[in-house]
Request: fold
Amino acid sequence: MATAAISMGNNVLGASAAAPYVLKASQQPLVGIQLGTHSLLSEGMEWVLDFLQEKGGIDTLITYSHSYYGADSRPDSVLADHGKGVQSFKDRNFPKVWVNHNPSYFKDLLLKHEKPTKKNDFFGRDAFHEMRKPLDARGMKVYVRLFEPWAKNGVGRIANYEKVLTVDINGRAGAGPCWNNPHYQAWIYATVKDVFTNYDIDGIQYGAERVGPLSELLFKGQTPNCFCEYCTAKNQGKNIDAQRAKEGFRELERTIRKAENNEVPADGVLISIMGTVFRYPEILSWEGNFYDGGEEINKGIYDTIKAIDPSIEVGRHVDHQQSSWDPIYRAMVPYGKMADYNDFIKPILYHDILPIRLRYWYIERISGLIGRDFTEHELLQGFYAMMRFHEDAEIPLDEMENRSMPPAYVASETERCLAGVNGRAKVYPGVGFDVPWHLPEGGVAPRPSDPEQVYESTLAALKAGAHGVVASRDYDEMRTENIEAFGRAVRQGLKN
Ligand SMILES: [Zn+2]
Reply:
């Protein structure tokens, strides 16, 4: 039964009830591209498919069934012209739901999808139905790209979404849904059940771009969550005392707030944090419980879809913090665990944007938090060693803003993922190019990639043994010369 996974409970992190995925020998790697469904409708479906196949060697579209995630409002300055003019987001009113949902799947559920109206662009179009024939004519496939909705895009659109958000230690709602909330779980399973029952779609790439409360506090200074009734009950079911967890998290937060003000305890910030965690192991239980909920959802999606059609490929998007810089996430959700309920893993390995992200989204941030005892140089050196970055990828701090990671980063991270899944899932690295930089003062700045580096990085993933590659992050942003460079590497990789 597809719904059996809803009550899987704590079992999800142990031995999987599903049969292990057996890798079939495949001579042909998957060559995917992430693109907004709006791009197909704006630029013309047949035109886009021909363009992607010819320039990029693409055989698989990975496109949104729902865009509550919110990647549809970027400024013209970061959008590429593929020969049909820049398709500006200005004055557009795209729907967030790109499929026709059948209300019967949601009738007993708390959450209901937003229904597109005549005010939306492309009202009345059914993109996933319309694309099937042109895809088949070209021997191409389509995978749904599904993210969990952020609160800012879900509240006010998805009925009752505010009721499933995480609850922090002070009782305030968080930025995303609680992974342990049964109403949220039931809604996301109903969503995929409806889509995969009523459309002819070849696969899904599911992702949730969040990390646990301990990472959020120690690395970003966020107030700890989730203390909703479901997380509390689930922890108490494992004899974890919610009051003790709260006390521990409050003590940790006090240490972090002091570190932000450069008030360092006599034993240092790191030792003080370790002391709190050792005295309050409930903190780690709480962290684990949050991740258990996330993995339960991934497995529930897998089981739901496999019950409909076992040939549909189910995979996991692993975002940049998850793939490349959060050590707690890496320790608690290893690739080998994801392979229990995924046919493929798509780790984000964006060579071009990683150094600047690493510098400002990680090293600089933690230097005022858990890393207060160290200089940024020391943190970076320790980071490279701990995360086993290839020596060629150890870019010095003062060069990070303007350099890209070398192909060795893509190769070594592909190899690490392959080693983790150990033949139980395929690995399709996301090769990222033309990904803009989010400016600290707000807005985004274009960051055009070098075609030669795109070529080398794509080839590095394939040479490392990847079962495919996914051009990332969004077709909207990708310049034609880089789609061509990606295509050249794919064709070269196929020859080797
Ligand atoms: Zn919760």
Observations:
- Residues 282-308 form the longest helix (27 residues).
- Residues 1-26 have pLDDT under 50 and may be disordered.
